[in-house]
Description:
Number of helices: 3
Order of helices and strands: EEEHEHEH
CATH architecture: 2-Layer Sandwich
Helix content: 10-25%
CATH class: Alpha Beta
CATH topology: Nucleotidyltransferase, domain 5
Radius of gyration: 14 Å
Amino acid sequence: MEQVSTIGLDIAKHVFQGHGVDAVGAVVVRRKLRRDDVAAFFKALPPCLIGIEACATVHHWARVLLAPGHEVRLMPASYVKPYVKRKKMICHEP
Length: 94
């Protein structure tokens, strides 16, 4: 695997999505990670910058990712919105 410099991590309940690029912006890794595999995956990587959308559990995951030496930056949802490719809708039946 080439040297990953930045990873965007989309956290969810069970399956997380990771998208990593190198220093020139070329995609190096796209990976689905189960909750149990996140810590092990990031321990195997050299220290890099990780961006995560701020939500209820983001501080827990930031502490987990800071432990192996990564730099974690939390982003408000308004900053992430332009990068969403599909709309996630919740339908409520009356």
